[in-house]
Design a protein that fits this description.
This protein is of the alpha/beta class. The chain is built from ten helices and seven strands.
Length: about 220
């Protein structure tokens, strides 16, 4: 039986923006060129962080994500939204989610995608060592990122894709340039009535949904 390679990208997606999809598609296309195995992308929206303001309600975040991925689905790219973390009270730890994913997709290859900022802090994640053993981690180097990587994490990093795919306990370092942007930046632009600037960072249908539903337009709620 042919294994499916499953790409997981987590985040608040509040709102989803171009860099999110750039990361997921970069992984997808690299793997597509390197293997004949079927590949799917799974977006994993988080329930929120108890130490931050609550995120936008899940119904809106999911609706924005659906609009952002619609064109990819028409292109035949297997991409979907996994809502399992939204169904649990925060805090939800990645190690627990990964354990669930390994049960759900026991016969497949699972890859968890993170940015350079997350890689720099990975050694502080709950049970990070077990996490690396359970799932393959694909990390991007972000433009201008100078975060220092923990020595224990650094020794597991490789830019050899064949080695990464064939060996467990490895972190692949992807040097594909990813645009520097953030959801908080977009929320601020919209709150300041700079929709034109925001339009360069998100899908047109996502921006239309934001405006129609009056999201992020109260500066007091933007963090």
């Amino acid at each position: 039986m042919t294994k499916t390679i499953r790409i997981f990208l987590g985040g608040s997606f509040d709102p989803i923006h171009h860099a999110h999809l750039q990361m997921a598609l970069a992984v997808y296309r690299t793997l597509q060129a390197a293997t004949q195995q079927p590949i799917s992308i799974h977006l994993l929206p988080t329930a929120g962080n108890p130490f931050k303001n609550p995120p936008t309600p899940a119904i809106h975040r999911i609706a924005m994500m659906q609009r952002a991925i619609a064109s990819l689905l028409t292109q035949g790219i297997a991409i979907g939204i996994d809502t399992r973390e939204l169904e649990q009270p925060p805090p939800v730890y990645t190690i627990d989610t990964v354990a669930q994913l390994c049960q759900s997709y026991a016969d497949d290859m699972l890859i968890f995608v993170i940015g350079g900022d997350s890689l720099a802090g990975l050694h502080r994640w709950k049970s990070y060592d077990a996490l690396i053993r359970q799932i393959k981690i694909w990390a991007f180097e972000r433009i201008g990122d100078d975060g220092q990587i923990d020595a224990d994490i650094a020794k597991r990093c490789t830019d050899d894709l064949d080695k990464f795919l064939a060996t467990d306990n490895q972190i692949f370092i992807d040097k594909t340039p990813i645009a520097a942007m953030s959801s908080s930046q977009i929320r601020t632009l919209i709150a300041q009535n700079h929709q034109q600037a925001a339009a360069t960072l998100i899908d047109d249908d996502v921006l239309a949904y934001i405006m129609a539903n009056h999201l992020y337009q109260d500066a007091k709620t933007v963090v």
